[in-house]
Amino acid sequence: SQLTELPAKVFLVGMPGCGKSTVGKELAQRLQCTFLDLDTLIEEQEGLAVPQVFEQRGQEYFRQAEAQALRLAAARSERLVLATGGGAPCFCENMGFMVSQGATVYLKLTPAELVARLTPSDLQGRPLLRDKTPDELLVYLADTLRQREPFYQQASLVVAAGGRDVPTVAQQIEQCL
Ligand code: S3P
């Protein structure tokens, strides 16, 4: 029972492993709108899996493809929830762009909470995280979070997602939109 109109675009941002895709799917279901995953859109656009884009074309290329896929998704006419890659807000003025296009939600977790959530198969699919020992992973996530937080914090809604289940977090976001 919304008194005001829902935003047409909802962008989820945050570190790898924070739950953007799982929370995003649940939120889209609640809002009865389309769910999109930016990494999947990049894979469709490039015809390659994300780790292969990094390996074969490099991170610089990946960031350009990401910025392009983001703008194409935002230009769609339908209402949608978009889960973005962890680095997306920090390149190509993407964060300002998302803020200008709809609601932005930062799913905030501590580095320790992120490590606890990332499974071995999650790590395999993430070129910037794979091949790290647990200690190295914690240090990498802490350093990266410190660099990225100024971007994430520009979100219109910051949600502490640690230790809470997916339906609870999605419900809280829905109530704040
Ligand atoms: C990245 C996060 C990934 C993916 C790419 C780069 C990053 O998305 O976009 O591997 O820079 O943190 P997730 O946040 O879904 O892991």
UniProtKB/TrEMBL annotation:
Positions contributing to ATP binding: 17-22, 126, 164
Gene: aroK
The keyword Phosphoprotein appears for this protein: no
UniProt family annotation: Belongs to the shikimate kinase family.
Signal peptide boundaries: none
GO CC annotation terms, alphabetical: cytosol
Binding residue positions for Mg(2+): 21
Gene Ontology MF term list: ATP binding; magnesium ion binding; shikimate kinase activity
Top enzyme category: transferase
Enzyme Commission numbers on file: 2.7.1.71
Record Pfam families: SKI
Cellular compartment(s): Cytoplasm
PANTHER family: SHIKIMATE KINASE, SHIKIMATE KINASE 1, CHLOROPLASTIC
Identification of the protein by name: Shikimate kinase
UniProt source species: Rufibacter hautae
Lineage of the species this protein comes from: Bacteria, Pseudomonadati, Bacteroidota, Cytophagia, Cytophagales
Residue ranges of coiled coil: none
Entry note: cofactor: Binds 1 Mg(2+) ion per subunit.
Family matches, as CDD domains: SK
Keyword Transport: no
Function: Catalyzes the specific phosphorylation of the 3-hydroxyl group of shikimic acid using ATP as a cosubstrate.
